[in-house]
Design brief:
Radius of gyration: 42 Å
Order of helices and strands: HHHEE
Strand content: 5-15%
Helix content: over 70%
Shape: rod-shaped
Oligomer: single chain
Largest sheet: 2 strands, antiparallel
Number of strands: 2
Structural class: mainly alpha
Strand order of the largest sheet: 1-2
Number of helices: 3
Amino acid sequence: MEKIQSEIAELKSQIQALQQERAALTNNHVEPGEHDSALAIVEAYRRQARENAQLSAEIRGIDDAISFLQKEIQQRKGHLTRYLPMSIRISQQEEQLEEAKKIAQIHAERVNELAGELAKELKLLKTCADELSPMYWQVYYKPFITGFKTISVPYVRSDCQVWTIVNRIV
């Protein structure tokens, strides 16, 4: 996008240089008198053009070059307007992504907080079960609670680009 803008600026400077050159070439224009008719002025310009055919051709060439460069500027501006909406969309998507990441970060912190609380509660439950199990076996001939070796809680971690949810065994 910056390349296109620099190309446009370069084309504008070329047009300005051509316009200055054209102005310098046309400084010897016909001065109409107060009593000259419109037809006389037109004839004077035509006579000057015939006398200075090379100058007229050069001016015409400069006008054509200016016209071409102006069309090039319009074309470059067309390219610029096509790329501009895409860059705006990308920046808007980046903003939305950053907002969503902030919200996800809040939820991930809450999940980790709850996982810590749950792990603490499970450890307390395991302590109770360890105390109750011998008596429970004596009365009911079966364990009070089983499965403590496979109990896990979710934990969210990130390497700043990819987030991973892992299960931590309690």
